[in-house]
Amino acid sequence: MNHPLGFTGSTLDRADLLRLDLQRMAQMAGSAEARLLTLSGADPVLDEAGRLLWSPLREAERGSDLLFLGLEGDAPRFAPLPRLEPGQRAWSVFRLIAQMAPEEAAVWATARSLIEWHNRHGFCSNCGAGTIFFRAGWGRKCAACECEHYPRVDPVVIMLAKFGGKVLLARQPQYPAGRFSALAGFVEPGESIEEAVARELHEEAALKVSNIRYVASQPWPFPGSLMIGCIADAASDEVVLDTAELEAAIWVDRDEVRAALDGSPSAPFAAPPRFAIAHTLLLHWLDGR
Amino acid sequence: MNHPLGFTGSTLDRADLLRLDLQRMAQMAGSAEARLLTLSGADPVLDEAGRLLWSPLREAERGSDLLFLGLEGDAPRFAPLPRLEPGQRAWSVFRLIAQMAPEEAAVWATARSLIEWHNRHGFCSNCGAGTIFFRAGWGRKCAACECEHYPRVDPVVIMLAKFGGKVLLARQPQYPAGRFSALAGFVEPGESIEEAVARELHEEAALKVSNIRYVASQPWPFPGSLMIGCIADAASDEVVLDTAELEAAIWVDRDEVRAALDGSPSAPFAAPPRFAIAHTLLLHWLDGR
């Protein structure tokens, strides 16, 4: 995989053993090297070079809940934990992400997923009592029943079905104009990655597939998915679309995909952005793998 | 992958489009072909051939919450939703699973994961109010804030590190005597599968690895993981063990692995059971891939 995958390559050491060490955590937050990620709501704030902004961690902020993102060398990096309003997710964040290097986007993505999770987990799913921040932001604990809760990561399969030199792409109603991307769906309890790929292609497009191969994976912080990219051989190109989820599907050949990835105005569809694994899957397929 | 992976190969059609169709669900539960999975707590109950026991769905059971597992041909299959006591997980269930075909274990695993999830999600993590059963068991909904909650699937990486013709295995304190298995850990927000593999091998064994390859995956219903099996090349065989998680580690060669998988009494360790993906990873490595 030569193309850098979006949201991967963070240079932070997560140093997970420090998360439960309250004394060390307080020491680090008080150190001159401690830095706090600057956010606007849960969105990144960038400098002119498209890099994340960090500020020294000030006295006033040390009392509030801080997410420990990890160490950059010896320097501790934290993120704030803002209260989000429901539905506060703007498509404009994708314009910012497009300007960011994947390894910078990875650091922000970690913070973003944790913030979303904390905002939806102020109460214990086991008993309904309030939960408290613990593990430096990598968990919450119930003050009543003592249940421990950990940030959720939802595995999602995203895949290209191949048939006769073409691959299948589809569009959801909320996509930007012209955009088509790979089909995708959540992995459910009781199935493998390969079974989820086969089920989703069957449910959404009525395709039967075989020879399912894993290609690559990426985190996706909207709000907290693990995207698992695969490719599979379809038994035919007869598609019956699940119109509850998708509004259109197209089979595209290599020239059409190349044109779309190049951003050509004559391309029959607009490609998924470089930071999305669907883009990587298309490049992988063009490479003839 | 010729070796059948544990907990995969279910022949049920999950028929997810029916889950929200309350009328159809009531019709199916009332049909003569409807079957209910027999459970003991959350454990499977087997016939003499090691197959799951099913009973006709009776009038009395139709009023209670039923998990819709899917269709076997046209025949609907359901599971009950028992109330579990905390910590009610017996190691004895592994003896039952060892007798089951993977495709039978897959059906039970789906029910088991859903049951565990419902038992821990009677309350809304967003507002603390009670949640109600919906989507035929594939979700819960908050009666107060209307948040929808979906069954959790936790991605876990499990991997063999290779060095000089050997692979690294380790044991957790609670394993049966002599058992060693592959190292594993949860994928965290903001990282890819490959990054999680590298991080876990570094955290647990102080290994640096490269060339991380995906091999296979399986669901693991204790309580609801997606096990993602990988193999990686270690830069050395110098291990520093995280003794908070692991009590011992060994590098084993092909002859030792073969002896263990054959159950030989002279093998230097007891192999993970056939239904665990660690077993599959060892077979894959023996095959020279």
Protein described:
Two copies of one chain form a homodimer. Chain A has 289 residues and is an alpha+beta fold. Chain A has three domains: 16-120, no CATH class; 121-152, no CATH class; 154-286, Nucleoside Triphosphate Pyrophosphohydrolase. Helix content of chain A is 22%, strand content 28%. Chain A has six helices and 15 strands. Chain A has helices spanning 22-30, 93-99, 102-119, 193-205, 254-261, 277-286; strands spanning 35-37, 39-40, 43-44, 54-56, 66-72, 75-80, 131-134, 139-142, 148-149, 154-163, 166-171, 183-186, 209-220, 225-234, 248-253. In chain A, the strands form four sheets. In chain A, strands 10, 11, 12, 13, 14 and 15 form a six-stranded mixed β-sheet that branches. A four-stranded mixed β-sheet of chain A has the order 4-1-6-5, sandwiched between helices. Chain A has a three-stranded antiparallel β-sheet with strand order 7-8-9, with no helix packed on it. In chain A, helix 5 (254-261) crosses helix 6. The relative contact order of chain A is 0.15. The mean pLDDT of chain A is 95. At the A-B interface, helix 3, helix 4 and strand 13 of A face helix 3, helix 4 and strand 13 of B.
